[in-house]
Amino acid sequence: MLSELILRIILGTLSVAAFGVFFGLLYKGIDRKLSAHMQGRIGPPIRQPFRDVAKLFEKENIIPDHAIPWVFNFIPLVGLVATISILLYLPLGGFPPLFSSGADLIVVLYLLIIPSLALVIGGFSSGSPYAIVGAQREMATMIAYEFPLAILIITIAWNLLQKGVTSAFSFSTIASMPVWNQVTGPLGFIGFAILLVVLMLVTPAELSKIPFDSPEAETEIAGGLLVEYSGRNLAMFYLIDGVKTVVMASIVVTLFFPYNLSAFLGLGSYEAMIIDIVFYLFKIFLVILFSVTLIRVAIARLKIDQIVYTYWIPLTLASLIGLILVMWDGVIMNIFSFT
Amino acid sequence: MTYLEALIQHSVALIIAVPLLSAFLMPLVSRVHPILRNIFALLMLTVTGCFIGLLTTDVLANGPRIYIFGAKELTLPLVRILFEVDGINVFMAIITIILAIIAVIYSWSFLDKQDGLDKYYTLLLLVVTSALGMEMTGDVFNFFVFLEISCIASCALIAFWIAEGEALEAAFKYIVISSVGALFVLFAVGIFYAQYNALNIATIAQAIQFSFLDKIALILLVVVLGMKAGLAPMHMWLPDAYGRAPPSVTLVIMSATLASFYGVLRILFTLYGNILPTSIRFDLPLNVVLGWILIVLAVVSILIGVIMALIQSDLMRLIGYAAVAEVGYMFLAIGTTIAALGAPYATVALHGGILHVLNDALDIGLLFLVAGAIYYVTKKRSLDDIGGLARTMKFTTVFFIIGLLAVAGMPPLNGFTSKFLIYESVYQLNPILSIIALLCSILMLAIFIKVLYATFFGPELPELKDVKEAPKSMLLAMGIVAGLAIFIGLFPNLFLDSLVKPAADALLNHTQYITTIVGGI
Amino acid sequence: MFTLESGSGFWNPLIWILIIFIAFLLFYGIRGFGKSLYKKGTEQTKAFLSGNKEAAPEEMHVKASNLYWGFTVSMSSLYSRLRKMHTGNVSDYLLWFIIVLAILFLVIGVI
């Protein structure tokens, strides 16, 4: 029992790490190619991020004079390892999660903080004023987007609770009872649609993409928190960015669209697995297209106090309206069922 | 009766008697040699800890234990002072004695160059005695007496650094607040005695009705003990007192604060346990109204605590505001339990709240110890004057990072386990509460990352060039607390099943407390 | 047995620690493929300030009170009100105590 568990952990971690890194960099390349075409350029080939990582491993790993060496070197690794660990708890490719009774939605919410926290601590320990400005902007952005994110996670779990489900936060429950099947009327549908839009707007802030990438503003503060990083440490941060894209897209897909095509088509076992994985990758591609690429090429960068204002006033109000609509969902249908 | 059984039977009294006696012996012992005084304090506290351990194993196996001062068995009329010890009492006593032992180990080197240390150790042992007395007594007037002892001894300890004027001001504010509070508690005790002719908690709990005088007593006790625990908007003394006292003193004052929180628990669940479901106007039962008031005050505490802590520049004052927010979390869990009495998630909320008492004591204690180490090494209080200390104080940095992650509730440390239980039970009462609690957890992280950067990162400042690592005993104290934090985080079920669940059961089954005394006559 | 279960979720810290440990070993090995040498003490290790001269360390260290400017300035109305509430006067502390006592009396005692 114990040895089987340890074997599952080892093999699962290694394979999921390979999956996460490969598809993270692949989607990063696709994103760059698509945004280049939208801007009228040709853009780099899709395998460019792999070349970037290989090139970064060839560069020198400079540690500045004013940095704290042991924190500076250790933190990117911590961030990457925590991001990989989230993937083990999500239902990837339409399969149930590897360790479904090991963590639930609240744990994943906290584990999502760790990569951004690693960026912040790395920036603070760099010893350069640009990095400090970037790091405190990243911290302020984190405070900003956690509010709507918390609201929508609690709403989803609360809705499942009202339908009488125990383990409302566990991923296997959420993946097996899709959100759109749990609403009983138009109000709940509109509420969840609002929450989906909010989540798609929180995703670029989590991934530090334009218009919310004030911490890593290349044109304002010369690269922000990553200004002093180079070589293999910067490669680690690059990988964190790629893997976190896959993680956030997987979370959006799991919370709102956990449907499997094979159940629809009724196929056999091997074809079902392949169709499931392809459909899952396609769903992740759609999420990245809409919430990262399209927004990135359309809107300019916001200032940091505009970011805090955007998340704390309009988006929080929108998610609160979504919460209230979901809470009143059953009430309106009860009223209508009496007429 | 074997020697061990006799020891267990009298351990209830010895837990109070040993620190009290050693407090009075302390001036004599410290005349001999300073090192003897230090060892004597630690030895007596360790002996008390052993008694608490013995009592815990007995209470968890055999149920509540009574100790009657001055008689062999219970006879009517119940005029004796009774100590009744059940699961929640031993839990709080364990927290108190851990904090006290850590504080003494820390003060060995933190205060080694100061004067008046014999009075310091005397007062410290008195505060420990009073906290233990508040937590183990079964008699309302006795609770008031121990409350007064803790007020006076804590006030003198807060003013330890007399050379700074602010410490005297903080002590003055503390004694004014505490004296006013204690007088109102005495008034409530007087109401109980006048109505029921008894001062014993179990007797009053059995006989209590919901008359107008009882309502007054309930409100007085809850509000005063909430103020002593740091509930907003009556929290303002807490950053003053915690920010100006030496950090080892702050640890024992925190145990007195947590003893006041225990007082709220005892009053709400046991003393008024029989009449909590009675309904006041609009068909609302008392527990719903009272629970929601506590929840509102708790949410205000959490918000005010984190929002004010974000702009502080004095390190210990900042940690004081973070302590206010943590007390808010505890009251949020308790308020949910009371408002939803009987639902399954109310039990989970109570587990989360009680476990959070332990976690909060350890985490905030660790942060104060690190703040004290920084003050000891650099002699500076404000965050604006220090920087770049991680180069020379590596261990302190690691302990601070552990404390930071624990207080913000990051997995896998202990803060996450209790906050996990609180989030996943409070959202069933109302989702908005869980959302605010989640948000303020992130703000807590932001606050302490700011402190981490300002003290430990950055270039080497020339005025702090010859700063060395903190002394060994301070590192030992910090290491013990950090190790406990990691251990509780990695094995939460161990502590949950063995300590927290019996404590929660003892609170929720209040009739067992009553029948142990009243039925035994 | 090692999983913490609230009514609605699970958390198993030991499995997470094992996952972290194995992933750490994997990525530490991958990281070892990168170069670790650099030229110490040259222009490389000075902070990048877009070509400006580096100032003395005290002046380069951003003060802690100036941190999180973005957050505090967007919430400035809230902060000014909260600051005014915390006066530091003991009479005000007792005033808040009496206010809470009065509200609770009205809600529970009278109504």
3D architecture notes:
The complex is a heterotrimer of chains A (339), B (521) and C (111). With 339 residues, chain A is mostly helical. Chain A has helices at 2-38, 48-58, 69-87, 105-124, 129-162, 171-176, 186-206, 231-256, 261-265, 269-298, 304-327, 329-338. Chain A has one domain (2-338). The model of chain A has no long low-confidence stretch (mean pLDDT 87). Chain B has a domain at 278-490. A two-stranded antiparallel sheet of chain B has the order 1-2. In chain B, helix 4 packs parallel to helix 10, helix 6 packs antiparallel against helix 8 (212-229) and helix 11 runs antiparallel to helix 12 (315-339). Chain B is globular, with a radius of gyration of 22 Å. The mean pLDDT of chain B is 90. With 111 residues, chain C is mainly α. Chain C has helices spanning 13-31, 57-60, 69-74, 76-85, 90-110; strands spanning 4-5, 10-11. Chain C starts with a strand and ends with a helix. The mean pLDDT of chain C is 83.
Distance between the termini of chain C: 48 Å
Order of helices and strands of chain C: EEHHHHH
**Order of secondary-structure elements of chain B:** HHEEHHHHHHHHEEHHHHHHHHH
Mean pLDDT across all amino acids of chain C? 83
Helix content of chain B: over 70%
Strand content of chain B: under 5%
- The separation of the N and C termini of chain B measures 22 Å
- Characterize the main sheet of chain C: 2 strands, antiparallel
- Low-pLDDT stretches of chain C are none
Strand content of chain C: under 5%
